[in-house]
């Protein structure tokens, strides 16, 4: 298995991923898509939905050659938490834009050093 190289800076990757999620994926989501992951190729806009993030990515890779995948959980708006409970914002939470209706996520880990969900880098690829 080869690892795809990122072809965009982290900020551009995040901007494209968020934009595609809001314009192409979110309008097509239904109640049945709750708790699924969206794997989005930021170059073509193609996407796959699945409750298993690996299956979503694998299906997208079968349809798109060498995709640049932006992965987001459609219900929670973020993927995984990295770092310890007292991690600073620099140690981050991978996430994407979350609608205001989801409420304030700043309290999800009771960490007073976090100023809120938008202070963190927006995708796991932002680490590299």
Task: Write a brief structural summary.
This protein is 21% helix and 16% strand. By secondary structure, the protein is an alpha+beta fold. The protein folds into 2 domains: 10-73, no CATH class; 78-121, no CATH class.
Task: Give an overview of the whole structure.
There is one protein chain. This protein is an alpha+beta fold and 128 residues long. It folds into two domains: 10-73, no CATH class; 78-121, no CATH class. Helix content is 21%, strand content 16%. The protein has two helices and five strands. The strands form two sheets. It has a three-stranded antiparallel sheet with strand order 2-1-3. It has a two-stranded antiparallel sheet with strand order 4-5. It is globular and about 35 Å long. The two termini are 19 Å apart. The model is unreliable at 84-128 (pLDDT under 50).
Question: Which key features would you list for this structure?
Answer:
128 residues; alpha+beta; 2 domains; three-stranded antiparallel beta sheet; two-stranded antiparallel sheet; 2 helices; 5 strands; 16% strand; globular; disordered C terminus
The tally of domains stands at 2
Q: What are the low-pLDDT stretches, counting only 5+ consecutive residues below 50?
A: 84-128
Q: β content, as a range?
A: 15-25%
Output the helix-strand order.
Answer: HEEHEEE
Query: Structural class from helices and strands?
Result: alpha+beta
Number of DSSP strand runs: 5
Mean pLDDT figure: 73
How many helices in DSSP terms? 2
Structural Rg: 14 Å
């Amino acid at each position: 298995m080869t690892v795809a190289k990122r072809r965009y800076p982290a900020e551009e990757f995040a901007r494209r991923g968020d934009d595609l999620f809001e314009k192409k994926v979110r309008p097509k989501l239904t109640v049945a898509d709750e708790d699924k992951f969206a794997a989005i190729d930021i170059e073509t806009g193609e996407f796959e939905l699945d409750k298993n993030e690996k299956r979503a990515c694998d299906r997208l890779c079968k349809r798109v050659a060498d995709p640049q995948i932006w992965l987001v959980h459609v219900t929670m708006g973020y993927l995984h938490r990295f770092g310890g409970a007292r991690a600073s914002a620099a140690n981050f939470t991978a996430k994407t834009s979350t609608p205001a209706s989801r409420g304030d996520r700043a309290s999800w880990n009771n960490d007073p050093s976090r100023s809120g969900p938008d202070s963190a880098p927006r995708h796991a690829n932002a680490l590299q």
